[in-house]
Every structure is written in structure tokens, then in C-alpha cells.
UniProtKB/TrEMBL annotation:
Residues 186-332 form the Glycosyl transferase family domain. Belongs to the glycosyltransferase group 1 family. Glycosyltransferase 4 subfamily. GO terms for molecular function: glycosyltransferase activity. Keywords: Glycosyltransferase, Transferase. It holds the Pfam family DUF4214. This is Glycosyl transferase family 1 domain-containing protein. The keyword Transferase applies. InterPro entries: DUF4214 (IPR025282), Glyco_trans_1 (IPR001296). The keyword rRNA processing does not apply. It comes from the Bacteria. It comes from Piscinibacter sakaiensis. Residues 544-595 form the DUF4214 domain.
Amino acid sequence: MSYPLTVHPGAQRISWVSGILYGGDALSETVLAELDALEAVCSATRQPVEAVAYCRNTDRQDSRIRVIDGPKEMLADPHFLASDIVVFHFGVYNELHDVMNFVRRDAQVVVWYHNVTPPQYLPRSAEALVHLSYQQTEAFRCADLVLCNSRHTRDTLQRTLQHRDIRSLPLFGANLAPGSGAARPPRPAPGTEVRLFTCGRFTRSKALHQLLDAAGRVPLPKDGRLSITLAGLLPHSDGDYVAALQAQAASLPPQVTVRFLFDLPEQGVREQMAAADVFVLPSLHEGFGMPLVEALSHGLPVVASDSSALPEVSEGLALHHAAGDVAALAAALGRQIAALKEGKVACQTGTLPAETWRQAAAAATVKYSRAAYVARYAELLGEWLAARPPTTESRVRLVQRALGHLVPVAQRDPRETLDASVEAYLLAHRVKRKAAVASDEDLLREILRWPFPDVEQTDKDVAYWNGVLTRSGARSLLEQLSNAPEIRSMPGRAQLNGSYRQLVQQVLDERRQAAPAAAEAGRSLESRLALARLTLGKSRSIGSTAFVQEAYKLILGREADPSGLDNYVGLLEARQLSREGLLKTLAESDEAKQRYGVEGRAR
């Protein structure tokens, strides 16, 4: 591919600005794809371009990524001052975006707007942050170009930012089906059990409570069953809403079962989409709705609300219902299930033969691949770079001198006495030495010194984090710790995230491989029982079914089998067994003793 790039003397410079840069985060993955697009342009044109992506936190080890403390530090950074193009990725309020008002007037400013969820769809605790986000969008008036991911968002912005260049640019999905959707074998018609799947954050704006309500109203044959799988990332969810959903799920009719899957990796999401019969997205607000596109790429029929950009994104290939209308959602699910039984798919275009619909869905989702996005963005970069000669060094010195009178350079935190990479190495190797001789609890205390260097962790704190490690694995534990306020408040400590996490994860993986039985169990039987008591003791509001399912996972390390689930739920509901009694029964079972290699009774 050729780019309209005029060769300028000297290197041009581009800055990207984002709150965080984490693998797996949608906004972060967009920035990383754009860095790849820049590499493609530079390779094709042989034109040198220097790039820096500024953020407050990252898990990537990349020389182009620079973790900074705040706006003052960025405004004093030589690369930022010399940047010919500055790209801001805006998803929520971040003080780094305040520098938008101070970018040199001869630099090009591009804002990538990733949408802000309206406050009425969020918990009250998030309202202040959302209002700050809307206030910060006033700075978009400084932009030469605003990018967004749908025509719906573009039209909304146009009403506020009149006379601005606003363009919609399709993003890409992390969970798209690999290869060509048209080449995959057709899905079989569902049997007596119809499997529904949805994924995303657990927040009220996703209307999952309405999905559970509607599930109880879907007309099913006498022997019909409805299985619902809700998948989502807990660190980005509303914990109270999750608890309410679990309680609601426990009260549904017996022909409807609900399963919660937390913190699935991308491959896990793809596997669930491949196994489901219908994807459901009943959201009250979606700036784009990438999970809908990902479902279509898997040839998975979709039922979705008509909110925001969803009808635009589905291109008539989803069956839409009125957002917020539970009866309409139940009717749409019933219609889709009836069509599937006949080997067809219901959508806004009509009820189509399954193969016809599948071919159309595959063709519609090709443009949402990462490679397609990189190609689109590379064309934009070529246009931008061709239009702007590089900033001269004398101009940089002039701006730097002027700013020096106005903005004091950020000072290094006096507690940060070591280079970040050296500190990461020392901390990680202290963990490695501890791993050779320490118990799980003592090893975890050593790991917790990274985000909480000045606080001694209580037994309850250690039990909580051990629960995270047991349920979600080392990677998820380290990701959550990296978001601790103590980490964010110290830029040097934030900078060492990538190195430290990689080294410590290697230590934990080696420990798991060295003692497979202990690794599988995670803890001794007594400790696992204590963890279950601590975790479930706070969950009085969840129903009996959810309690039994979680108890199985925490003590036996597996999903509850149907017979065991029915038996224990019945005993709990009849008050023939207490919740504490259930935990002890599972801990004293032959399966638990064999799994943990212990004898005797659990206390």
C-alpha cells in the first residue's frame, strides 16, 4: 500500500495520550494497533517518525510507552513539546487530557472519542466521575479532528461540536472468530436446551437484570430449558449489581439456569460464543457494541436492544427489541428460538435460512478485524504526516522556555530512590527467594509489598487476595494489584509494572509446576475451608443455588454436578442443612480428602 507522504527533512514526532495501556483493554488495544499502523507507514515510506504513548499505568514493556505522573510532567517533556501530531484517546475523565488545552497551536490535535456512559445508567458512586468526563469534553473544541466509532456517536457529537471535523472510524474486536466465518460449518439447531450467552461489564446499563426477568417469560415447550451464561470482567464491574444478579438468578423458574463466568480470557469468550445458540445484548446504552459484531463473526444469531448505535452496527442482521422493554425482549427471544428450531435465523431483515444469514454475517464483519483497522489508520497517518513538516529544534526550545515560566517541572517522588527497572528486578527476586521456602500466605505477603509498601497486610487481607489468586490465577491477581491507588500515585513504581509482573508471574508459574498437586488445590483443605467461610460469609444476599455453586468452586475446585446441586439446594431451602454445614460437608467429603491428600475431619 502506498501513502501520500511528503518526505520532510528530519524526523516527525507523534504523541499518543491515554489513561492506561493494558493488554486486553479495548481502548488500550486501539492505541497499540495505531502504533503498529505507524510502523507500517514508516516501513513503506522510509520516513523516520518518533512516537511516544503517554499514560499513567501500563503492563507493556515497550520503549515507545512512557508512564508519567501528570500534565505538568507531560508539558515539560521534550518529545511532547516537539510533537507535530498529538492523538488523545478519551474514554473517561483523566487529568492527562487537560493538556489538550495547551498543545502548541501549530500541532495537529486528534481526539479519539470512545464514548461516556450516561450517568442515569451508572451507580451513584460513578456520577461525579461521569460529570467530570462530560466537562472535559469541552476541550474537544481544541481538536482539529475528532474520531468516533459510529455514525450515531458522530451525529451526537456534531450537535455539540459544530463546525468541527468529526469522522466515524470502525474499530476492531478482540474476540472475533478466527478465519472466515463463511468457511465454518453451520450450527446445529438447538435441542431441548437453548443456550443464551452475553458478555461485557456487569453494570446496570447492560440491563442484565432485564434479561433474567425476560428469561422467565419466554414460552418454552414442556420439556424445554433455557441456559444463560453471563460473562464479564469483575475489576470493571459493579459488585453490588453482580450480587443482585446472583440473587435474581437463584429465584428463576427451574427450567431456567444461569451461570456466571468471571474474567474469562479472550479464548474463553470465543469458546462460549462457539458453543451458544443465541447471543443477547439488551443494553440501555452502547456507543458501539463490539460484542454484537463478535457474535456475528462467529455465526451466532443475535437478539439486541435498539439502543444507541446497535441497529447501525448490526446492519439488519440482529433481531432488535425496544430497549428497556422486558416483554419485548421476551418476545424477541421466543421468536428467535422458534426460528432456530426451523433451521432459520430471525433478524431485522426478516426470517432467513440459516446458511443465507451466516454468509451475510461473515461478509458484514470482515471490516472489524485488527488488520483492517491498522490499514485504515495507516491511511489517516499518511495524510496527517504529509501535511505537516517536522517541528524545528529552535521552535521546541522557544516553547520550552516559555512554558518554563508557567509550569514547574514535576519533581521525582523522594521515595523513589532507584531506577524503575532495577527496583522491579530487586522486588521480584525477593519474591523468588521467598517462594523457595515460604508458605502460600507468606509468599503472598511478600508480593503485596509491591502495591502496599508501607502497610502490613492482615490475615483477612491475605485471605482475600489468595482467593483472587485461587479463582482467577496469577495474571488476574497481578493486574488487580497494579491498579491499586498506591501504584498509581508513584509514577516510578507504576513504570516498573510490566517488568515486575512478568518476573513474578514466572515465579508463580514455576512454583505451580514444581508442586502440581499443591498448585491445583491452591491451599490446604483447612485453608481452603477458611477461604470459603471468609468469601461466602459476606454473601448473605445470594440465593441457595449460587451459594452451592460457589462453595463447590472454592472447596472442590470444580463446577457443581446437577445431582449434587439439586440435593444441597433442596437441603438448604428446607433448612435441613445450614450454609456452614454445607461447607463442612464438602470439606469432609472423600473427594476433598483425596484432592488435598489429608485425613480426618475439617474443623
